[in-house]
């Protein structure tokens, strides 16, 4: 039940109209206590509070059929529903909630059956592109979002198919968008109908008529900046082929009172402001001086600006529309003259002469009005201050007081504008209306919506009267639709009833109704507003001076003041005679009654007394506004009754009341079976839908299935429920779903906990695996390092052993060579000494021989003895022997040195072969003994290498560094070496450093010209190596570590001759492969044959090694 505890319902609220709540307690049959709950809105203080409501009052406000049925909340999606007839619970709160959701998502249109409801978004949406025109014409209505194009397309297709005239009714409050909706549908119909070049001209004229009528019939109000102040019924004319060939427009109830006065915040009609944007010379000829605020009829709204509008721009649009319609320059000038005459007429003021007499105060304004109307200023002045009365064949001039003269002035202004508007409508019809080949038409009714203000007058009565007429038509159409649906579903029609608003119409338009009473009072000489109200009181039994009418949309209280004046729709005869004297042909066109007015004629020949003039009409000429409007509405309803009607917006709640009169809730059989199969017994789930529905209701709600019970009805495709019955089924379903939800929650929580446990367990296993892998990696790394150090140690010890042996042999040979050289030098020196001595002896012999030649003169020296000659010969022979011995020793030393060099080459070759075999043994064999031996050799090699490194350190003093690099492949990896040339006191050193791996090389290659840079480095290095090898440039080389080698430049001896080095050793040392092998050390220092190389040089590990 709707009042069951916990049910979500809607309750009335003074601020938000309807507020969501849940039933807390049922206090009585007609009273419940509810608690306000959150409804997807911002938090408010009332959430959680309780309040007591009268169920009958809520049901009445919500439009429920039952007096005790509360409006139940529906479950809405974010975008609401396209058709509100699909709601399970359809009432006023549901309609408002659905419209609110769609408006929040900028969806302005919603269906309620055949009705299209529009909520004005007050912004232009991209919903009216020409690409949508054919879609709504070709595709079904249900396959596209709600749109006015659906109504216009349905009307056009219905007209083409059945040759039946169509009408689309658009109604709503001021500012709801009625005029824009009509224009949108007119554009759609004009575009889809086509018609070639001629059709384009007609379409342009039809569409251009809208801005022209808006300029003269629209004004700014408090709710709408472009409010239509008249009703319009536009008939689009089509030929037999469906082409648009013309249009015809009828207008109703123009708000003439707006011409002479507006309320604060509103404006007069747009044209009165547009004329001030005319050219200065034209305004001067129209006697328009100053600004808008200087004129009484427009100064109230002069300060009320219309946003994003420019009167000069709209004036140009108005003139363009006149040109399109075919209004020539003469007629346009006449229109502006009448508008200017009305503005100047509002500036005419009166001065009190006596109590019953007045005179014109502003004569210049009267002259301006007379000039614009092309009449005499004196005649206009007299007409404004006096009125003519004829009685008993005599004419009397009755003066007017100030108030009467002002009323006459305003009536004159309203009458001129009303006639101008009627002439403009007729002129548009003459331009766009077709009289030939009209096969059918589609009418679009744009009429004022229902109005109820704090103060309601004559205009509101006429407007609400028109809406009552439309509502009657609407009710009839909806009732017929419901009847057709029930017949189609096979439901008895006697269950459907609805309230008709005919009594209200009889009250207004019937015999002795309000319209007749008003017209009767107007015809009485001393009729007054109070007399009319008193008659209305007697008729409707209301309070004095006010009467209330219970309309379909609500009760409205009317104030009868000024009803008689507003109901008089004629001009005084004096003003008609004044206008008849105008010399302007345009004035006579605007006032057609002037051409029909007869003038007195003389007898033929001009003799005899003239015939008696016809009796002048009284003060009022023509029909009253209420009477004319009643006649127009009757003709309009007759015309609409002959058409197929498509509703735009009116009477949503009334439509709900009618369509849901007997069965407020309905579901399709398919939806019912899918929704309530969960609470059906298993044997009913496979039964036909009808049997399933009947069996379920008999099982769950047996009291509703008794004989002749009308609480539900099963149709051919739908199930209809009376108020509250569907909610009982929903309550049973919700209870079962709640138990299912609890079971699902338990299982979901179990699965979530189990999933968390499995994720944690998997994560722990992953962590353990990573930790074990890390520990195993550390162990493997340690084993590898141990194995590597053993191999390196073995290699180092073996290379050290081989090198030491070679060094010792070489050292001995070098020492012997140097000793032989020393002995040879000593022998040569001794031989030289002996030769010098022999030379001296020979010189002494020669001198002695010279002395012997001069024996006679000089006494001869004593000859050497034989013994002395023998000594000299023996010394010379000994010297020669020693020289020969020294030469033999030198030759022997040279041979020994050559043998040592050959031995050195052999040892190097053996060293390389041994290293290769050792590496192969390490990788190819896994024998335990071999591994143990390798480990031992590696360890010894490492110790030996460390000793050599520590004992052979050389202090390098860098003076100049030149960088060069070379890249080559080592196995699967690219290795780059960097060359540094360092000069110190001992010579020039060439230091090679292992620089980077493939990653740095790839980075270099990615840079600009990276490949060329590496190629240049390789070329430079090759040139250096070739030059060094060719010139025996490098003298010795020592390997500092596995990534660094140091080379020393070959020095010159003191004699300037280069000492010879072993070229093959140097070439092997410089080769690129030698960077990964051991390098031999050489020395050519003299004067220290026994001194070790380590005692003279100290090699220091280069810190820049990578």
UniProtKB/TrEMBL annotation:
Any idea where the Myosin motor domain is?
79-646, 651-734
Where is the segment annotated Disordered?
Answer: 596-617
Which of UniProt's keywords are assigned here?
Answer: Actin-binding, ATP-binding, Coiled coil, Motor protein, Myosin, Nucleotide-binding
A GO term from the CC aspect: membrane
Q: Which superkingdom?
A: Eukaryota
Short name of any one Pfam family annotated for the protein: Myosin_head
| Molecular function in Gene Ontology | actin filament binding; ATP binding; microfilament motor activity; phosphatidylinositol binding
- Please name the InterPro entries in this protein's record: IQ_motif_EF-hand-BS (IPR000048), Kinesin_motor_dom_sf (IPR036961), Myosin_head_motor_dom-like (IPR001609), P-loop_NTPase (IPR027417), PX_dom_sf (IPR036871)
Q: Which residues form a coiled coil?
A: 810-837, 897-954
**One of this protein's GO BP terms?**
actin filament organization
Q: Could you say which residues bind ATP here?
A: 172-179
UniProt lists the family membership as follows:
Belongs to the TRAFAC class myosin-kinesin ATPase superfamily. Myosin family.
Q: What is this protein called?
A: Myosin motor domain-containing protein
From which source organism is this entry? Saprolegnia parasitica (strain CBS 223.65)
Q: What is the lineage of its organism?
A: Eukaryota, Sar, Stramenopiles, Oomycota, Saprolegniomycetes
């Amino acid at each position: 039940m709707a009042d069951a505890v916990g049910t979500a319902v809607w309750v009335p609220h003074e601020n938000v109209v309807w507020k969501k709540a849940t039933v807390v307690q049922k206090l009585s049959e007609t009273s419940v206590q509810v608690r306000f709950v959150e409804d997807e809105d911002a938090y408010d203080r009332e959430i959680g509070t309780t309040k007591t409501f009268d169920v009958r009052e809520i049901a009445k406000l919500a439009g429920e059929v039952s007096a005790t049925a509360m409006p139940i909340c529906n479950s809405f999606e974010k975008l609401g529903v396209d058709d509100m007839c699909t709601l399970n619970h359809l009432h006023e709160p549901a309609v408002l909630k659905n419209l609110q959701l769609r408006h929040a998502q900028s969806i302005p249109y919603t269906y309620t059956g055949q009705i299209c409801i529009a909520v004005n978004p007050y912004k232009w949406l991209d919903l009216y592109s020409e690409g949508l025109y054919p879609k709504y014409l070709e595709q079904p209505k249900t396959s596209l979002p709600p749109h006015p194009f659906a109504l216009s397309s349905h009307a056009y297709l219905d007209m083409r198919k059945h040759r039946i005239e169509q009408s689309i009714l658009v109604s709503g409050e001021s500012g709801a968008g009625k005029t824009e909706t009509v224009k949108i549908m007119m554009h759609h119909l004009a575009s889809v109908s086509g018609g070639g070049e001629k059709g384009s001209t007609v379409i342009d004229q039809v569409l251009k008529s809208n801005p022209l009528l808006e300029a003269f019939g629209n004004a700014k109000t408090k709710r709408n900046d472009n409010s239509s102040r008249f009703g319009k019924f536009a008939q689009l004319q089509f030929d037999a082929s469906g082409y648009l060939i013309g249009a015809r427009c009828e207008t109703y109830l123009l708000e003439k009172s707006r011409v002479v006065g507006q309320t604060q915040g509103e404006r007069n009609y747009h044209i009165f402001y547009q004329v001030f944007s005319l050219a200065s010379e034209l305004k001067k000829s129209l006697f328009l001086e100053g600004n808008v605020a200087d004129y009484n009829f427009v100064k109230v709204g002069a300060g009320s600006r219309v946003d994003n509008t420019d009167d000069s721009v709209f004036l140009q649009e108005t003139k363009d529309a006149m040109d399109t319609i075919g209004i020539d320059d003469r007629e346009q000038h006449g229109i502006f003259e009448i508008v200017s005459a009305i503005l100047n007429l509002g500036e005419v003021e009166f001065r009190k002469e006596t109590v019953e007499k007045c005179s014109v105060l502003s004569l210049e304004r009267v002259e301006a009005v007379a000039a614009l109307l092309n009449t005499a200023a004196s005649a206009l002045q007299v007409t404004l201050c006096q009125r003519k009365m004829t009685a008993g064949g005599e004419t009397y001039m009755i003066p007017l007081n100030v108030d009467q003269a002002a009323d006459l002035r305003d009536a004159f202004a309203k009458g001129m504008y009303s006639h101008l508007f009627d002439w403009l409508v007729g002129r548009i019809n003459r331009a766009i209306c077709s009289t030939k080949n009209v096969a059918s038409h589609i009418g679009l009714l744009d009429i004022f919506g229902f109005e109820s203000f704090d103060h309601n007058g004559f205009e509101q009565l006429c407007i609400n009267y028109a809406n009552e007429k439309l509502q009657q038509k609407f009710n009839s159409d909806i009732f017929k639709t419901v009847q057709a649906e029930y017949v189609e579903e096979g439901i008895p029609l006697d269950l459907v009833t609805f309230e008709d608003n005919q009594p209200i119409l009889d009250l207004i338009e019937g015999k002795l109704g309000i319209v007749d009473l008003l017209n009767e009072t107007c015809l009485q000489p001393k009729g007054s507003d109070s007399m009319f109200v008193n008659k209305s009181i007697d008729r409707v039994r209301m309070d004095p001076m006010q009467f209330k009418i219970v309309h379909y949309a609500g009760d409205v209280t009317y104030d009868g003041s000024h009803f008689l004046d507003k109901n008089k729709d004629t001009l005084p005869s004096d003003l008609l005679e004044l206008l008849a004297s105008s010399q302007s042909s345009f004035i006579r066109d605007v006032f057609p009654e002037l051409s029909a007015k007869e003038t007195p004629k003389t007898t033929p020949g001009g003799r005899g007394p003239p015939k008696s003039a016809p009796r002048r009409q009284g003060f009022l000429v023509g029909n009253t506004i209420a009477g004319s409007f009643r006649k127009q509405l009757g003709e309009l309803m007759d015309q609409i009754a002959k058409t197929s009607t498509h509703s735009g917006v009116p009477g949503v709640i009334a439509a709900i009341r009618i369509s849901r009169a007997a069965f407020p809730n309905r579901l399709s059989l398919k939806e019912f079976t899918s929704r309530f199969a969960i609470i059906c017994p298993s044997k009913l789930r496979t039964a036909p839908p009808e049997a399933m529905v009947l069996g379920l209701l008999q099982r769950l709600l047996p009291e509703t299935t008794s004989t002749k019970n009308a609480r539900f009805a099963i149709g051919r495709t739908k199930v209809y429920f009376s108020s509250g019955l569907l909610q009982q089924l929903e309550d049973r379903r919700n209870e079962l779903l709640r138990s299912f939800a609890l079971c699902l929650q338990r299982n979901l929580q179990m699965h979530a906990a189990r999933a968390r446990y499995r994720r944690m367990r998997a994560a722990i296993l992953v962590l353990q695996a990573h930790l074990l892998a890390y520990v195993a990696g550390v162990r493997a790394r340690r084993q590898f390092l141990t194995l590597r150090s053993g191999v390196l140690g073995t290699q180092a010890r073996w290379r050290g052993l081989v090198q030491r042996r070679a060094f010792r042999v070489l050292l001995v040979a070098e020492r012997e060579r140097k000793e032989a050289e020393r002995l040879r030098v000593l022998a040569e020196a001794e031989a030289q000494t002996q030769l010098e001595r022999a030379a001296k002896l020979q010189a002494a012999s020669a001198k002695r021989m010279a002395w012997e030649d001069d024996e006679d003169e000089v006494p001869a020296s004593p000859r050497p003895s034989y013994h002395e000659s023998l000594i000299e010969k023996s010394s010379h022979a000994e010297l020669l022997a020693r020289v020969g011995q020294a030469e033999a020793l030198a030759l022997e030393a040279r041979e020994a040195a050559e043998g040592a060099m050959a031995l050195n080459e052999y040892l190097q070759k053996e060293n390389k072969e041994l290293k290769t075999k050792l590496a192969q043994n390490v990788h190819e064999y896994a024998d335990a003994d071999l591994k143990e031996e390798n480990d031992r050799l590696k360890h010894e090699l490492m110790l030996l290498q460390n000793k050599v490194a520590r004992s052979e350190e050389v202090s390098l003093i860098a003076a100049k560094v030149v960088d060069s690099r070379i890249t080559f492949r080592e196995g699967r990896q690219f290795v780059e070496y960097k060359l540094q040339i360092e000069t110190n006191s001992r010579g020039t050193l060439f230091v090679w450093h292992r620089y980077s791996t493939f990653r740095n090389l790839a980075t270099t290659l990615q840079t600009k010209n990276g490949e060329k840079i590496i190629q240049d480095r390789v070329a430079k290095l090759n040139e250096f190596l070739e030059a060094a090898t060719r010139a025996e440039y490098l003298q010795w080389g020592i390997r500092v570590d596995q990534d660094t080698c140091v080379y020393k430049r070959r020095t010159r001896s003191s004699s300037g001759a280069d000492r010879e080095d072993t070229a093959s050793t140097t070439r092997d040392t410089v080769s690129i492969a030698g960077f990964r092998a051991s390098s031999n050390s050489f020395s050519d220092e003299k004067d220290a044959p026994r001194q070790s190389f380590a005692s003279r040089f100290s090699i220091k590990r280069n810190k820049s090694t990578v």
